[in-house]
Amino acid sequence: MIPLRTETTAAAQLTACAGVVSEFFADVFTQLDQWQARVQSIDGRLHGAELDEAVAAFAIPALERPNSALIGAGFIGDAGDNSGLSLHFAWWIGPIDANPLLAETTKSTRLDITERRYTDYVSDFSALEWYRMPQSIRQTHVTGPYVDYLCTCDYILTITTPVFVDADMAGVDEMFGVVGADVFVRSFERAVMPSLLAIPADAAVLNESGRVVVSTDPSLPVGAVLSETAKEREWHTVPCAEGPFSVVMRNNDTPR
To answer: What architecture is the 45-187 domain classified under in CATH?
Structure first.
């Protein structure tokens, strides 16, 4: 039998951790809303150097501000050649420690996919989750955690927001790209782990699909999936106010 006081304290810590998660992502979502508005406020659909200049004006400062949570930012979408298949990357990578793809940098660098290996998978970008889902649901979507082989060779979360142009003949706005941001999972882990460790049981942060983002349970590493059945039977759950996340705590009477 769990003492009522302990159970109450655990519930409070679980809720407090959900608040930390929400606070972390609230700033990212606010930035994306602002970027979406800035790109959509431009008269007409920009391409090439003009689009790059407009995106760089908000992406680079966001990446280089002190203690930024972002490691990538920019716009990805239609290149404007009417093929429906062309991809334009106006994307920057923030200051980064040395990794298998990049040397250590102190300034933002422009992503050039022609210099990256293993980029064939982005040739049909409209099929990729970080593009397909904002296009389908017409709102911000969080993809991941997943290993980013294109930019960082590390676990990241990608948050993307659709960018629309003038309505078509049916009166529906057309999406021609997304503004987005990448966040290192390890950066998120540093921010949320103290509150996660304060929970007096195994605990984890999950995305909307039940995939583990951060965990204190060795049996649930990053990327593992907690089934709905297991979550209902073995875990207490608190949804986060910001973003498609929840914080879960294992029932004290449930064995590992």
So the answer is: 2-Layer Sandwich (3.30)
